[in-house]
Design brief:
The protein is α/β, with parallel strands linked by helices and 510 residues long. Helix content is 42%, strand content 16%.
C-alpha cells in the first residue's frame, strides 16, 4: 500500500469515518472561519497537482472529469478550471442537478460555465489521457443505484489513466466494502485525512496510490480524539541495545508449539523471535519429537515435555507452565495440532498462565465455540487470527468479516479484553481500550504457508521488551516490511516463510 502525505500529517496518522470528516469540515467554518468554498478550492487544486504528476504536465492533454451532484462533484469543477488554465483539453460530464447543488458547488459550476468549459450530460465516445472520478464521494452507504453502477462501469472501461477524488466511487468510506462495483483508480487524492475505506480492503485495492492532501483544516482539529490510526512505522530493537547489555536484557521467549508433521511452524516462530532481537528463545516441544527439533534448531533451545503420539496433552501442562512462567512472553499454538486432548491442553494453559501470551493458529482453534477461557484469563493476551480463524471465533462468516474488518476486530477486542491482530492485507490491530490501527506494510508475496508463524515469533520478541500496543503494531509493520523485502528479492510467487524470516535482519538494519 503506497501512501504519501503532505506535511500536515505526522505519525501516527489518524483515520476517519465519513461523519468524522464532515465534522472536521464543519468545524473549519464554524470554529476557524475557513469557508467551505476555500476547502473545495484547496481540494480541487490538490487533485490538479496529482494530475500534473501523473501526466507529467497537463498542457494539451485530453481529460474527462466525471462529476456527481455533491461536493465531490464541486471539487471536480475546481479541478477542471485549473486544468484549463494550464492548457488541458477538458470535458466535464455532469450527472448532478444544479438546482440541488450546494452553494459552494454551484459557485464552481457557474465559474466553469463562464470559462466555456464543456459541460456534457453523458460520457462521450472519445479517448482521454486521464479520467477523473468525482462522482459519489464519501457519503455512500449500502448498495448503489443502477444508474450509478452503470456510470462507474463505463468509467472503468474508458481508456487512459484513472484518478479518484477523495475516495473511489462505490467504495464505502467507513469500511472499505464494495457491494457491487467501484471505480478502479491508478491514484486517489484523499483530503485532510485518510478515510478508513481508503486503507482497508477491498476499498484500498481500488485506490491505487493514495495521496493525503492538506486542504488547510487546522491540524489540532484533525488530530482531536482520534482512536483509529495508520501504522506507518515500528520500533527498531537495534536502537535499544545497551553497550553493556547481555542476553537476559533482551527478553526471554517461550514458544509452545509443534506436533507430528508440523515441526516447521514451531521452528519458524522460534527463529523469528530470535531474529527479531529476543535474547533467549526456548521451544517447548513434544518429547517424542525432540530429536527432530535438536537437528532443526541451533541457536534456539528445546524443552521436551511428555506427549502422546507427537502431540501435547494434559501431562504436558505442568512442565510447560512451570517453564513459561519464568519467561517474559509465551507463544502458544503454531503447529500445535487439533487433537481433542491437544485442544484441552491449550485451553487449560490459557486459563492458568499469568504472563504475556501470544495465542496463535491451533491454540485459536482450541477456543472455537467457547470463549469463556479467554474471557476469564488473567494473562495479557494478543490473538492473531486470519479471517477463517476469526470466523470460527465469532460465528460470523468470512464475508461478513471482510465487509468490515475494523469493526470485527474492534468489537472482539473490547468484548473479550484482548488485543486482536486480524491478519490479511491491511492487517488490523485492535485493542481492548477501543483504539485500533491499520497496517500499511506488506506484499502479496506473504500469502504463503508459515508467514503467520513468523509473525507470532516477531510479536513475542517485541512483547518481551515493549508494551502490548507497541509490540503488536510494530510487529505487524516489521513483518510486512520483511515480506516486502522478500518479494523484491525473490518475486511474489517464489517467496516462502523462510525468506520472510531471513529478511527480518535487513529490515531491522534499515
Amino acid at each position: 500500500m503506497k501512501i504519501t502525505f503532505d506535511s500536515h500529517i505526522t505519525e501516527p496518522c489518524p483515520l476517519v469515518t465519513a461523519a468524522e470528516m464532515r465534522e472536521c469540515d464543519a468545524s473549519a467554518a464554524r470554529d476557524y472561519n475557513i469557508a467551505g468554498i476555500v476547502l473545495m478550492e484547496n481540494a480541487g487544486r490538490a487533485l490538479f497537482r496529482k494530475a500534473e504528476e501523473m501526466l507529467r504536465g497537463v498542457k494539451g492533454k485530453p481529460i474527462a472529469v466525471i462529476c456527481g451532484g455533491g461536493n465531490n462533484g464541486g471539487d471536480g469543477f475546481v479541478f477542471a478550471r485549473h486544468c484549463v488554465c494550464a492548457g488541458a483539453d477538458v470535458d466535464i460530464v455532469y450527472f448532478g442537478n444544479r438546482e440541488k447543488a450546494s452553494s459552494d458547488s454551484l459557485a464552481n459550476i457557474t465559474a466553469a460555465e463562464r470559462m466555456n468549459i464543456p459541460v456534457l450530460e453523458d460520457i462521450p465516445d472519445k479517448d482521454y489521457d486521464l479520467v477523473v472520478d468525482c462522482l459519489l464521494g464519501t457519503g455512500i452507504t449500502g448498495d448503489l443505484r443502477e444508474t450509478s453502477r452503470d456510470i462507474i462501469r463505463r468509467m472503468n472501461d474508458m481508456a487512459g489513466l484513472k484518478l479518484s477524488c477523495d475516495i473511489p466511487s462505490g467504495v464505502n468510506s467507513d469500511t472499505g466494502a464494495v457491494t457491487t462495483v467501484a471505480f478502479k483508480a491508478d491514484a486517489t487524492v484523499t483530503f485532510a485525512l485518510p478515510k478508513i475505506g481508503t486503507v482497508t480492503y477491498p476499498g484500498a485495492a481500488h485506490c491505487g496510490e493514495l495521496a493525503v492532501a492538506d486542504i488547510t483544516i487546522p491540524r489540532e482539529k484533525l488530530y482531536e480524539s482520534r482512536i483509529t490510526r495508520l501504522i506507518t512505522t515500528g520500533v527498531n530493537p537495534n536502537g535499544d541495545a545497551k553497550p553493556d547489555g547481555h542476553k537476559g536484557d533482551f527478553g526471554k521467549v517461550c514458544v509452545i508449539a509443534g506436533s507430528k508433521g508440523m515441526t516447521g511452524a514451531a521452528c519458524m516462530a522460534s527463529e523469528a523471535a530470535l531474529k527479531t532481537g529476543a535474547g533467549l528463545v526456548t521451544c517447548v516441544v513434544p518429547e517424542s519429537l525432540n530429536d527432530i527439533f535438536e537437528v532443526k534448531l541451533t541457536e534456539v533451545m528445546t524443552l521436551p515435555v511428555p506427549d502422546y503420539e507427537g502431540a501435547f496433552r494434559s501431562d504436558s501442562l505442568a512442565p510447560a507452565l512451570t517453564f513459561a512462567e519464568g519467561c517474559d512472553v509465551c507463544v502458544l499454538g503454531p503447529g500445535l495440532g487439533r487433537e481433542v486432548y491437544t485442544s484441552e491442553f491449550a485451553r487449560e494453559f490459557i486459563a492458568r498462565y499469568r504472563g504475556a501470551l501470544i495465542v496463535d493458529a491451533d491454540a485459536l482453534y482450541a477456543l472455537s465455540g467457547d470463549l469463556s477461557v479467554l474471557d476469564e484469563a488473567e494473562s495479557d493476551i494478543i490473538i492473531t487470527p486470519h479471517a477463517g480463524e476469526m470466523s470460527r471465533l465469532t460465528g460470523m462468516t468470512t464475508a461478513e468479516i471482510a465487509a468490515d474488518r475494523l469493526a470485527a476486530a474492534s468489537e472482539f477486542a473490547e468484548s473479550h479484553g484482548v488485543t486482536v491482530v486480524l491478519k490479511g492485507a491491511g492487517t488490523v490491530v485492535a485493542h481492548p481500550d477501543g483504539s485500533a490501527a491499520v497496517n500499511t506494510s506488506g506484499s502479496p508475496a506473504m500469502a504463503t504457508g508459515g508467514s503467520g508463524d513468523v509473525l507470532a515469533g516477531m510479536l513475542a520478541a517485541l512483547r518481551a521488551r515493549y508494551d502490548t500496543k507497541t509490540a503488536a503494531e510494530s510487529g505487524v509493520f516489521l513483518h510486512g516490511k520483511a515480506g516486502e523485502a522478500a518479494g523484491e528479492k525473490y518475486g511474489t510467487a517464489s517467496v516462502t516463510a523462510k525468506d520472510i524470516l531471513s529478511s527480518i535482519a535487513d529490515v531491522l538494519k534499515k
